[in-house]
Design brief:
This protein is about 35% helix and about 10% strand. The protein has one domain (about 25-115). The strands form two sheets. It has a two-stranded antiparallel ribbon with strand order 1-2. A two-stranded antiparallel sheet has the order 3-4. It has helices at about 1-10, 30-40, 50-55, 75-80, 110-115, and strands at about 15, 20, 100, 105-110. It is built from five helices and four strands; from the N terminus they run αββαααββα. It is globular and about 45 Å long. With about 120 residues, the protein is mostly helical. The chain binds zinc ion (2 copies). One zinc ion binds near residues 101 and 103. One zinc ion binds next to loops.
């Protein structure tokens, strides 16, 4: 098992939705890139109630959770809807998309979302 994980970590390119992605996930810079993009998505105010609910439900913060506060879209529901696998909306790109940006609602492929760091301020 450890050998397999080492082989995956050292792999420089891998198939993703039929495209070959040149992105070594175990490289420190690439890990930071993924975390930066994900953190930016979680900073969207639309996830504020989801985050608050998660922290309260697990007991890390106190507070009463009213029923109306449990009605929110999770990041999976918002960013990975069933129709998220279409064509990337970056101009000129024809690669299959995999995610919908929670800020601009555009669909992006791995390269234009993660590798190019699709970040909103
Ligand atoms: Zn966006
Ligand atoms: Zn693209």
């Amino acid at each position: 098992m450890e050998l397999l994980l080492t082989q995956v970590a050292k792999k420089k390119s891998w198939p993703f939705h039929g495209e070959i992605i040149d992105f070594q996930i175990a490289q420190r810079d690439n890990i930071l890139t993924v975390l930066e993009v994900i953190y930016n998505q979680f900073c969207n105010p639309m996830f504020r109630q989801f985050l608050r609910y998660s922290w309260q439900k697990t007991g890390y913060i106190d507070g009463y959770i009213a029923r109306r506060e449990t009605e929110f879209d999770t990041p999976v529901e918002s960013c990975f809807p069933k129709d998220s696998a279409t064509i990337c909306e970056h101009p000129g790109c024809q690669i299959l998309s995999f995610i919908r940006c929670s800020y601009c609602s555009s669909l992006f492929c791995f390269n234009h979302f993660i590798v190019n760091k699709h970040i909103h301020q």
